[in-house]
Amino acid sequence: MVSPYYQRFKKRLGRVWHRYQLTRWFIVLILGLIFVLSAVMTFEAKTANVGNLKAQLEKTTYIYDKNNSKAGSLYAQKGTYVPLSKISPNVQKAVISTEDRNFYHEHGFSVSGIGRAVFLLIKNKLLNRDYISGGGSTLTQQLVKNAYLTQEQTFTRKAKELFYSIEVENVYSKSDILSMYLNNAYFGNGVWGVQDAAEKYFGTSAANLTVPQAAVIAGMLTSPSGYNPIDHPEAAKQRRNVVLGLMAETGAITKSQAAAYQNTAVVTSDTYQYKDSYRYPYYFDAVINEAISKYGLTESEIMNHGYKIYTYLDQNYQSKLQSNFKNSYLFPSNAADGTKVQAASVAVNPNNGGVMAVVGGRGKHVFRGYNRATQIKRQPGSTIKPLAVYTPAIESGYFYDSELQDKKTSYGTNHYTPKNYNNVYSGKMPMYQALANSVNAPAVWLLNKIGVNKGYESVKKFGLPVTKSDKNLALALGGLKEGVSPQELAEAYSAFANDGTRTDTHYIRKIVDASGNVIVSSPDVSSHQVMSAKVAKEMTSMMLGVFNSGTGATAKPYGYSVAGKTGSTEADATGDGDATRDKWIVGYTPDVVLATWEGFDNTNSSHHLENLSGTGVGPLFKTEMEEILPYTKQTSFNTKDAATLAKASQSNSSFWDNVQNGASSVGDQIEQGASNAADTVKKWWSDTFGN
């Protein structure tokens, strides 16, 4: 029995509904929502650059070097693209019979298919399932899903798929759409496109596929991994026979032909050869990363949309570095458990910041995996001395031959006491000698003299990542909280090679899309004036001594002048006083800066380098430079080794030295007299007006 309260509510609701014509408003609301959704989706489809789709699918993304020559290609979901005229009609009929019988009569979508999809959506919502169980996708919808969208089954994605499909149908002919679909479909075993699938499974071209072979190819579209004839021959045969039956239903073949074909065996033949043109893996990885992080492209777009990416790559440099990293004799021995000593090198053009070569590790490369040249954060050791100590000292009025104290000294309330290698001290030495031989005590003494803040600000100008916790005397020896990468160090040293100007390191010069539109016309980088050209020149004169007579002498490339610095860091808690965690060499000419690092990924008592001399990385660096420098312009330095300059200055100016010494003596006496007079005045003032 219906409650009287319900009857009264029903009558009242009816009167309100009729009075305010809520049915009409409800219809208007639904139509409005549909209109807004349609407008948004239409706008998105119109701005998706559908007109570029065919060019994107046809063309491969190529990487170009600094000379605009092809260096290699990138592709993930892309095989060998062939026109529809070179795809057997048998394949076309098999695919249409199986996937979309009304392909030639619809405009990108199927009304009955949409009806099924809506029914499944309502069903899943009632069952609290937040997805659509497929259904209703035409060939055009499958094409745009693979080309533009994700595989997630949501209402939003299905709506986008519908409007994108309509736009594709507006732009392209049915032949173009079928061609793009067949060339962009996945067929298992890492094979994309019907041409490569024909070679992989039947050892022939797409143009020569027979009806049974075409049925196998079409059958794989539903489940490429489950129906490929190499891994699952019986399942592939059963699926093929289903496709043959569907072809008979649509009239593509007769029923008798279908029956005859169904009784034949599936014979495979694999003649497919994977075309690996990812020739310079660490460099190409870095290019992809930069295109994503700086220019907003996605990995899928970069790999599959047929871009031309112009870079600073020098193929001579890159190939030499890669070859060197495969030669075990250039590296220290493996650890006892076989773990390899790792390494990384990067070569930079100091004039524009362009990275010309990079290798991020030894052993097997992983696509977009760990790149030590750009990603490690290790203490730079003594390679920081020119940045944190000697450059700001020169800017503060010191000279390359200024005398520095070389004594074991404690500083501050925490009694920080830097030590020289082997605990040897000479009392004093000229700056150029302290730098060339990487002596610790003079560097710390000098930083203390000029002030830690000057050193800290100098390191920041060189672009290294420092924090306020690094603002202490340990900065002179590379004691950074975060550490640096070889690429960051190479960028910092590029300022010495480029008259004091540092440019952000980068890989990409220009990007052009598949239709020829320039989407990146100039690199998104900036330059920084780190020091004057005069200071850079004086610093170079001192750093030439590193390779001529200092810690890098054994790493000097034969027949070439190179400036730079070596560095090493201690391995803590290993129980070995000579254990080393990191070894560095960074060297430069006016044409190239090369930074090289060696060490274990994880340093401990059984995984560390030996001794602190900094020579372990020498054979690798020496070989790299000897193979790179012949390809440079071989521009000469505009200065000489500081030791040579000092020796010439001493031998050619003895007379003026005596005059200057005499003047200095007289000046000292005058200064002393003035000081005494001042003390007398102070005493008189105190006695007269004191407390």
From TrEMBL:
Keywords: Carboxypeptidase, Cell membrane, Cell shape, Cell wall biogenesis/degradation, Glycosyltransferase, Hydrolase, Membrane, Multifunctional enzyme, Peptidoglycan synthesis, Protease, Transferase, Transmembrane, Transmembrane helix. It holds the Pfam family Transpeptidase. One of its GO terms (cellular component) is outer membrane-bounded periplasmic space. The keyword Transmembrane applies. InterPro entries: Beta-lactam/transpept-like, Glyco_trans_51, Glycosyltr_51/Transpeptidase, Lysozyme-like_dom_sf, PBP_transglycosylase, PCN-bd_Tpept. SUPFAM superfamilies: beta-lactamase/transpeptidase-like, Lysozyme-like. GO terms for molecular function: penicillin binding; peptidoglycan glycosyltransferase activity; serine-type D-Ala-D-Ala carboxypeptidase activity. Coiled coil: none annotated. One of its GO terms (biological process) is proteolysis. It catalyses: [GlcNAc-(1->4)-Mur2Ac(oyl-L-Ala-gamma-D-Glu-L-Lys-D-Ala-D-Ala)](n)-di-trans,octa-cis-undecaprenyl diphosphate + beta-D-GlcNAc-(1->4)-Mur2Ac(oyl-L-Ala-gamma-D-Glu-L-Lys-D-Ala-D-Ala)-di-trans,octa-cis-undecaprenyl diphosphate = [GlcNAc-(1->4)-Mur2Ac(oyl-L-Ala-gamma-D-Glu-L-Lys-D-Ala-D-Ala)](n+1)-di-trans,octa-cis-undecaprenyl diphosphate + di-trans,octa-cis-undecaprenyl diphosphate + H(+); Preferential cleavage: (Ac)2-L-Lys-D-Ala-|-D-Ala. Also transpeptidation of peptidyl-alanyl moieties that are N-acyl substituents of D-alanine. This is Membrane carboxypeptidase (Penicillin-binding protein). It comes from Secundilactobacillus odoratitofui DSM 19909 = JCM 15043. The lineage of its organism: Bacteria, Bacillati, Bacillota, Bacilli, Lactobacillales.
